Amino acid sequence: MSRDSEVSLNYQVGGSISAQTSVYIEREADVDLLDGLKSGELCYVFNSRQMGKSSLLVHTKMHLESDGYLCCFLDMSRIGSVNVTTEQWFAGIISELWRGFKLPAGSAMIDWWKSLGDVSPAKKLGDFFQNQLLSAYPTQRCVVFFDEIDAVLSLPFHGHDFFSVIRAMFNLRAVNEDVRRLGLRFLVLPYPLI
Asked: How many CB atoms lie within 10 A of CB 1?
């Protein structure tokens, strides 16, 4: 075989595959997920580890952004799950979202957090989605990608409030048109939380 006729095979072992590589193989799940998110569905991806969920997320995010969506990728394992209080954990989520959606830098997030006073951290997360994010982007469609959500299982407290906020925001879309634009619709789970 001549050198000109050789085919270069690229591969990657482990980790998310970049959206700019030819290594990624599009699957039926890519189309289904993209269609589901665009139609406003709450989407979950269940599978075991190292099966391409994060790569699917990266690929889907690229397509949505090319269609004008604002997207934020949140790796839940970055927040921490050991020796963390409920308040620190929710503040970490909001901080990642604040940075990911490019809201005002500096002490703006801390000032906003303190301005809400003594309400629960879960209430503050709901307020972030309903007021901060939507007022920053009043006409933009926003999608949040939660990856490595199994980190919730390692928390020293129950993570039920987190899932309750996500469900409440999804349910609120039925009566609030602004919330309908907010894309809290995609949770990536390494395996079923059963």
From this structure: 6
